[in-house]
Amino acid sequence: MAAAALLRGAAPGRGGRAWSWRLRAAPRRRLGHNYCSQRGESAGSAAWACFLLDERALVRVRGPDSAPFLLGLLTNELPLPGPAAGEASTSARSGYAHFLNVQGRTLYDVILYGLPEGSHEQPTFLLECDSSVLDALQRHLVLHKIRRRVTVEPCPELRVWAVLPCAPKEAGRAVLLQEKAECTTILTRDPRTARMGWRLLSQDEGSALVLGGRLGDLQDYHRHRYQQGVPEGVHDLPPGVALPLESNLAFMNGVSFTKGCYIGQELTARTHHMGVIRKRLFPVQLSGPLPVGSIAPGTSVLTKSGQAAGKYRAGLGDVGLALLRSEKIKGPLHIRTSESGLVALTASVPDWWPTSTK
Description:
Elements (H helix, E strand, L loop, with lengths): L1 H7 L39 E5 L3 E7 L3 H6 L10 E2 L6 E2 L1 E8 L5 E10 L8 E7 L3 H12 L5 E4 L4 E7 L19 E5 L8 E5 L3 H4 L3 E3 L2 H10 L37 H10 L4 E8 L13 E4 L4 E9 L2 E7 L7 E4 L5 E6 L11
């Protein structure tokens, strides 16, 4: 079977059986973007925009000890596969987590996929990470493997896609896949927030697999992500710099405060139990699109009186993320560009965040 070949790391044959999971309908949410109409298509011609995420890569961790091994390194519980409704087989599940260093700062942000186990197959997880740290993540895993019965290897045969609805009315519906016997596919909800739609792992063209799917512009995906305040990758979460709770890890379902010990847990748990997080990553809107590189990461964000309110983290055009003191976000803010010009900046609180933060 194609599924068994994939779990063992072999390239599955094209004549194998399709491996796919259907998705439960998500709660109805309003998205502020119509990805398909911006590309000259009417909302009626396409239901979903599919974005190929070339900057994301996959690592496969498999073996009898893979679950306890990962639990000792990740901030969250594992997305263990569960029984599908009315079926004897199991379905893949996803989760979000960070790897931390011993000082409690983020090293790598990952989306985890817990894959179903066959009677003759070992527990297997796929870790989606920033492709620029693929080798570093593998070295990190091997360093801590010690005598665990675990195999760590890349998974280049699958590509990562993001699937977002083209119209707000579609956000409450499930993504349906074409019935293609020759493809190997994993489809699951994005575990961070319903606003980020779905994740699709496939060997084939994602927009051809999704019923009503169209290929989306990658910049539209990143603009949407920044508008929703969702950090992703090393530019938004600099390794060894970003703190998980300041990066809204708890809001994105990425940390468990009841699980066993993991590397970097002490600072994270202490910050949580103190209940005081003075700075957070907020989505920001600039007064106009700026040339690429005109605002360097770490540039100070200032109040009207010139006091420091935080630092700009990353962005695309006129949207981005900034690490700001929560009490400063309601007042006028500005940032200085590399040409010494001042640009107004507005921070917002995403409406999917807990009510207590608004």
